Amino acid sequence: MKLQKFEFEGKRGRYDCLTSDVVYDSSYDAHSMDLYDFCCESLKDLRLARIETWPERYSSDVNYCETRTSFTDNSLYALALNCRMLQMIDLSFIGCDADWPSEIGFTQEGFLVLIQSCPIRVLMLNNANFFDDEGMKALSSSPHLEALELILCHAVTDAGMRFIAHTPCLSNLTLRMCHNVTDVGVAEQEHAHKLESLVIESCGKVSLQAAQCVAKSVQYSSKCSNALMKKIGLGGY
Fold first, then answer.
1. d(CA 143, CA 148)
2. Residue 4 has what pLDDT?
3. Is the domain of 3 the same as that of 119?
4. Residue 209's pLDDT band (boundaries 50, 70, 90)?
5. Do 110 and 96 reside in the same domain of the chain?
6. How far lies 70's CA from each of 28, 67, 127, 180, in Å?
7. 157 and 111: one domain?
8. pLDDT tens for residues 133-155?
9. DSSP secondary structure of 117-139
10. H or E segment at 212?
11. Distance (Å, rounded) from C-alpha 210 to C-alpha 69?
C-alpha cells in the first residue's frame, strides 16, 4: 500500500451525550485484538482528531475508570513496527479528565515507543493527559523533531520545558492552555537559541515579556480564541 496520509476526525461535539444519538468510537470492541492495526510502510502523516472518550465502567473503591477507546499500546506498537516512515502525528482528544488514570486507551510508554521508532518531524498533542515531563525528556532526544504543539497538556511543567530546549532540530514551538508552564520554562528556550517561532495562547503563567525574548517570530495571546475553543471541543460545531 502506498498510502502516505491517514486521517480520522470525529464530527460531533462534546455535548452530544445530552442526546440519544451518542457517537462512540465506532470500532470499539473490548474483545477485539486487531483494531487500528496499521501496516503501511509509506505512511508519513497520521491524524486522529476529536476522539470522544466515554466511560465504559467505573470502580468507585479505587477511583479508576476503564479504557474508553480501542486505540491502545498495541496499536502504537503496530505503527512503530509497520510505519517506519511516519513523520507527522496529530492526536486530539475531547472530554478527557486532566487527572490520571487516563480514559485514553494507551500509555505514555507505548506512545514513546512510536516516537522513538519513527523520524517524527511534527508532533501535535491536544488534551493528551498521558503526556508529562518524562515524555518531554524523551522528546528531547528526537533527532528529527522540528515542530511541537501542546494543547491542554496539564502534566507538562517548566521541568519539561527545560528538557525540550535540548531537542536538536526543534524550531517551532506552540503552547496553548498549558497552565503549568511559566516564564521560567519559556526562558529555557531563550538559552537554547534555537526557536524560529513561538506561539503562546491562553497560558496563564506565561507573560508577553518572557515570550518576546525567546524566538525570532512570536505570537502571544492571553485569551482563548474561537479557533482554540473549537480545537478543544467547546465550540465551532
1. 13
2. 52
3. yes
4. very high
5. yes
6. 5, 8, 17, 29
7. no
8. 999 999 999 999 999 999 999 99
9. HTT--EEEEES-TT--HHHHHHH
10. helix 208-212
11. 39
